[in-house]
Amino acid sequence: MNIAIVGAGKGGLSAIKCFNNIKDINISIVVDKNANAPGIVLAKKLGIPFSHSIDDINCNNLDIMIEATGNKEFSDFLKNRFGTMCSILDSKSTLLMMTLVERDLNTLEKINNQISIIHNTANIVEDQLHEIISSIDKIHTVSDNLLETTKVSSQYIKESDNIIQSVNRIAQQTKILGINASIEAARAGQQGKGFAVVANEVQNLSKYTENFAGEIKTILFKLSEEIKKIDKEVHGLDSFSQIQVDASSKVSSAVDTLVKACEENNKN
Asked: HEC states along the chain?
């Protein structure tokens, strides 16, 4: 259907906005003597033919002419000139149509606002989901680090256990040597001075024991450091979990905003 809009003021502007979005309706021309009329400006922007004179209206393929000026005398003039060539909506019909158009435009605006809100909400949801996915990946990394740290700690514990066993063996040997040295010294009397060698060995073994004790201390220190690392990683895990909580909160807030906006538009 081909239509012509005569009058590019508020009514004509509304008509252009409405009919331009309808697939089966073609706006053949918009006419207004005011070159700066809002409808003329919009027609230029949309690529719709426009003119400042009704003489440029071609009625050969025109179905309906919409008189959007609201002027009864001008409406009668259009009927007298073009009434036999196409259907003409007079001022009253145009006013009724413009009222309906304005209502439809308001409805469209509300729908567009809702779509915009939905679009923004979708973007927020998508961004927050990316945050959640990213934090989950980090949590997996932390878990792997925890497993590796635990493995290292277990190895240190194993090494310290081996050393402790060695210390126990040395302690047993030292004890036995001490007992034997005491027995032999008692038997030898003055000759017991020869057991000074045994005493030296016992002292050496004591030194070895001290060295092993030092190694145990070092290993336990390393174990303590690894435990600190575990504690740090656990705190990091808590932080990543908080990111998930915050992201979920933002998503929930965005959805609430969407629901409230829809409710407000429905009320209006």
From this structure: CEEEEECCCHHHHHHHHHHCCCCCCEEEEEECCCCCCHHHHHHHHHCCCEECCHHHCCCCCCCEEEECCCCHHHHHHHHHHHCCCCEEECHHHHHHHHHHHHHHHHHHHHHHHHHHHHHHHHHHHHHHHHHHHHHHHHHHHHHHHHHHHHHHHHHHHHHHHHHHHHHHHHHHHHHHHHHHHHHHHHHHHHHHHHHHHHHHHHHHHHHHHHHHHHHHHHHHHHHHHHHHHHHHHHHHHHHHHHHHHHHHHHHHHHHHHHHHHHHHHHHC
- pLDDT value of position 194: 65
Q: What is the pLDDT of residues 226-267, one digit of tens each?
A: 777 776 776 676 666 667 667 766 776 776 677 667 666 655
CATH number at residue 143: 1.10.287.1490
Q: What CATH number is given to the structural domain containing 62?
A: 3.40.50.720
Domain that holds residue 84: 2-89
> Total domain count for the chain?
2
